[in-house]
Amino acid sequence: MLLDSFGRQAVDLRVSLTDRCNLRCTYCMPEQGLQWLAKPELLTDEEIVRLVALAVRDLGVREVRFTGGEPLLRPGVVSIIAACAELAPRPELSLTTNGVGLARTARALREAGLDRVNVSLDTLDEETFHTLTRRHRHQDVLDGLAAAEAAGLTPVKLNTVLMRGVNDHEAPELLAWCLERGYQLRFIEQMPLDAQHGWTRSQMVTAEEILELLATRFTLTPEPSAARGAAPAERWLVDGGPATVGVIASVTRPFCRACDRTRLTADGQVRNCLFATGETDLRTALRSGASDAELGALWRAAMWGKKAGAGIDDPQFHQPDRPMSAIGG
Ligand code: SAM
Ligand code: SF4
After folding, report:
1. Which among 16, 19, 96 is the best mutation to test ligand 1's pocket, defined by most ligand atoms within 8 Å of the CB?
2. The CATH number of the domain where 200 resides is what?
3. Looking at the whole model, is its pTM more than 0.85?
4. Cβ pair 109, 95 in contact under 8 A
């Protein structure tokens, strides 16, 4: 099992398939100049499957989420998922995507064994989409969402980051739009993980503000707390339910105490936290012929050293060198 010294067990593995992306969201990447990982540094498809298999078979991982960068840019994404769906015990398989490539891949992903998708969409307005992502791909994302639903990758979940003065006024409209379509919406507080280190607390739209914005149009009541478990989103019933909306308050109400995550970057480094400043290199060990038992021991040691919390409020807080896109968000 992947235990840490505070008694938490990691059962949820986030696997980054690439650090590259076809959008340039302002809260994630600079417009240009971000260095990509070199190809030889990336784990091969076979190496990824070997490490996921080890995590599932020997280390107690029950859920695997593929992310990035943009995971659909990885040519082998469908075959990696198909191989992971063959594992016993069969892990739950999901994918976080910007949705741009989903219209052409949703069916193949489903057939390969993917259970669900989280699609990131911050706005219903084409121009605002361009302001936020620096690309004209809004319609592709809308088409991707429809394709995900048609392919049965349900319930379709939406992730939204609100940026002050850009799309924060859209919060109630986004929720209404999702309710109409049966999509589950979760707002994520902007975190200090952008490559250009531009995050400031004063610019961040807080969970409290998000709830105030939603309350202009909806009545929100907290879902019974037992339902949250290790899920980072606090959920509210909308107008009495059963529909819900989630808020992931990573900064103002961190959920570290219940964290059950472990992370594998596209270049084969284990991270025990999004905000960790250290990593454990599985790629070098793997390529030097390490056995599954040796790799498992390295992974367990990496998790044992997990800190109690992300420490964003600590005056000593240092943003990790790797941006979100290279960790796997
Ligand atoms: N490219 C895919 C996508 O956008 O869904 C997967 C990777 S992306 C890094 C994963 C999630 O992280 C997205 O929902 C995105 O909105 C979110 N994200 C990126 N940078 C963030 C930041 N600085 N704070 C909070 N969430 C962020
Ligand atoms: Fe790409 Fe996702 Fe980062 Fe946007 S949030 S730039 S889609 S990796």
Report:
1. 96
2. 3.20.20.70
3. yes
4. yes
CA 275 to CA 329: how far, in whole Å?
A: 11
Q: Which of 105, 120, 158, 190 to mutate to test the pocket of ligand 1 (most atoms within 8 A of CB)?
A: 120
State whether the beta carbon of 97 lies less than 6 angstroms from ligand 1: yes
Asked whether residue 263 carries a pLDDT value surpassing 80, the answer given is yes
The answer to the question of residue 18 being in a domain is yes
State the distance from the centre of ligand 1 to the C-alpha of 19, rounded, in angstroms: 12
Atom 11 (ligand 1) nearest CA: 329
Res 12 pLDDT > 80: yes
Q: How confident is the model at residue 80 (pLDDT cuts 50, 70, 90)?
A: very high
CA-closest candidate to residue 189, choices 309, 30, 324, 96:
324
With bands split at pLDDT 50, 70 and 90, how would you rate the model's confidence at 90?
very high
Residue 47 covered by a domain: yes
> Is position 44 within any domain?
yes
Flag whether 5 is in a domain.
Answer: no
What is the number of the ligand 2 atom nearest to the C-alpha of 70?
8
What is the residue range of 251's domain? Answer: 12-327
pLDDT at 39: 95
The total domain count for the chain is 1
CA dihedral sign of residues 173, 218, 188, 312: positive
